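Reviewer comment 2.1 asked that we show a complete input and output for one of the modelled complexes. We chose the beta-D-glucopyranose case, as it is the one discussed in the main text.
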Amino acid sequence: MSKKTREILSQLTLEEKCSLCAQADGSFGRIPRLNLKGSVPQDNPRGGEDYFRTGRPVEGDGKYHPVAFPSDACLAMSWDEELACETGAYFAQECRANPDLINWLFRPGVNIKRSPLCGRNFEYFSEDPVLAGELAGSYIQGLQENGVAATLKHYICNNQEFERMTTNSIVSERALREIYLRAFEIAIQKGNPLSIMSSYNQVNGEWVNSNQHICDLLRKDLGYEGVVVSDFAAVHRNKIAAHNCGMMDIELAPVDVHSDELLEAVKAGKVKEETIDAGLERVLDLVDRLYATTPAEADMEVLHEAACRTAEQCIVLLQNNGILPLSKKQENLLVVGGLAENPSYMGGGSGHMNGYKVETYLDVIRAVVPEAAYEPGYQLVEKMHPVEPGVPELISSAVKAAEKADKVIVFAGLGYCYESEGYDRKDIQLPEGQKLLLDELVKVNSNVILVLSCASVLDITPWADKVAAVVYNSLGGEAVAPATVNVIFGDAEPGGRLAESWPVAEGHMPAYMNFTRECQDKPDVMYGEDIYVGYRWYEKRGLPVLYPFGHGLSYTEFEIGKPSVSKSDITPEDTLEVTVPVKNTGSRAGSQVIQLYVSHDTESACDRPVKALKAFAKVRLEPGESKELTIKLDRKAFEYFSVNLNRWIVENGGYTLHIGISTADILYRVPVLISGGEAGFLYTEMTPLTWFMASEKFFRILGENFPPEVSGMMDRNAGGWADLLSPLPFYKTTEPYMGTAMFTREQADFILKKMNEQ
Ligand code: BGC
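Response of the prediction step:
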């Protein structure tokens, strides 16, 4: 606690302290009596009364309109930590350029994309915790190094919008740690966000705000010492429990609800004054530190350009038969789709950004090819839960034009009302009108370039093999149009790689059976897919995907040389260095993302994913240029959370490093052997014989110490009684279960000791 905070606290009455814990005007640490103006955190650099807005505001409203950089879903596709840090720095600059001088932001969100349907996926990075955590951490660095506090949100297991304020996420301890917490952990360790926002939902039956286990994970396991703020109106009659639990330093309150409740509880001894003090100390310390943030200038044109460069590095070229990049000399170019005039660039709700200058695809294309023709092809409906049926006249007019066109660029995807805070998408389908249009267009023109805008997966399987190229720009911010057009005409490289897998069928999606169920019977959301989120699911189940995680094409060619590994025989405490030579062998500059996945191949105490991303590196190379990338792996790359032992462990045995450019495009597999680790499993006398019988070690011990018939009796492949015996707890082997005991007590103890030896 700073001296200043100590002094402030000592001057406050109990009433003042309690009211400071939830100021309904959204200010934190504002104490007029002591001339302290506090801080008013905002969701975006726009600030002011735009605070809670869904959808697009009226232009020319005299408010500050910051440049809308690409959404975090789009930024994630850059796989570029430096770019994420730069983006954070741009946000900080705009916050400081706001006349109200914003010094605290409620971003970024690092929730895992458990399902492509989540309405807020545009605010989240990835289905993978390493990619999400690393990029969020870098973004936080950029923000905070420039004087603006970040708020990492929404902690935790808030992965859908449907009934987000009342749902109960039922999640296993292993999935909680390995998937959901891991993203927070990485972002916290890398970026040290000055605050964290807790989420609305319950986890395993208790509101996050007052969930002691969830609090302990943050405060004790991750050692987080910053401010924890509740989500907006997320206190559900658990104010007292939330303060006592340590998960709420300050409440983001809509109105002065239950204003006296805390005061009365402190007076009645139900909450200790020290508890309130501890939370306020953190808040006041932070506010005090933020007073040092000074105003900045922002040249909006320069920032708009930066938003364009950023988007270019995120755009993913999903497929290309060689049609792209287009030459600028186009004779009969046709542009189709209402989105060409009205691009989707950001989702709705508190994460929405209005933008400084939203350019349209049509204008930008016509600046390159002035005579390009245009057909709307479908009608965009801008309202919540829109229905967009086909408009026959629009379709037939577009088809007639396409028959005569040399090439057709179709802008498809979701208008801005589909993806928002507060509700989820119903499916991964394109609107009906766009589907009918595409069906017809691909019949009459084989040079269709499909450009997709949507923060998450779309089902384009019916047309994928009928179009010449597919470009995916997510929700790419206000400069998405120039960035995309630059990619199409080759002025920019498609720098992005997918941060999410694209399934071939909706029913294949990991959380398909446990997502957005309109089930009034109970508010439980079963995280039934467990750790198998995203590619972990598709790979484990052997399900094909349309485009794999990490995928993205380039306009140039890369030669990725054989990786070298600093050591192949390691202990869990070693740091492994993997060096990968990459050369641009094509004729254009371009970037490549080297992805490193790890699998555990030998006997494990638990079920393992086929492989999991542990590290990545992006490199930009001029034609002919080469570089060596060095990727470091420490024990985190090999550990898993043992539910049995209730801690992270590294098992001994064989692992493989999979080095490639997507989950499906692995170029090298490097074996690594770990010794000096642990067993994820402690054999006890209650362990079923099944587990002994599944272990080679057990048979080795038997073979070395007992007559052969003992091994024979325990061998499930030997055709004896082993299967029948296998459910027995181990201690039963010392009892005459089938006439005579198999082992004496000493022998059983000896076996147990040996089994648990490393
Ligand atoms: C959202 C948060 C946001 C807060 C304040 C809530 O409804 O879930 O992400 O920061 O409002 O706008």
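The pocket of beta-D-glucopyranose is lined by residues 43, 52, 106, 153, 231-232, 350 (CB under 6 Å). We note this here for comparison with the apo prediction described in Section 3.2.
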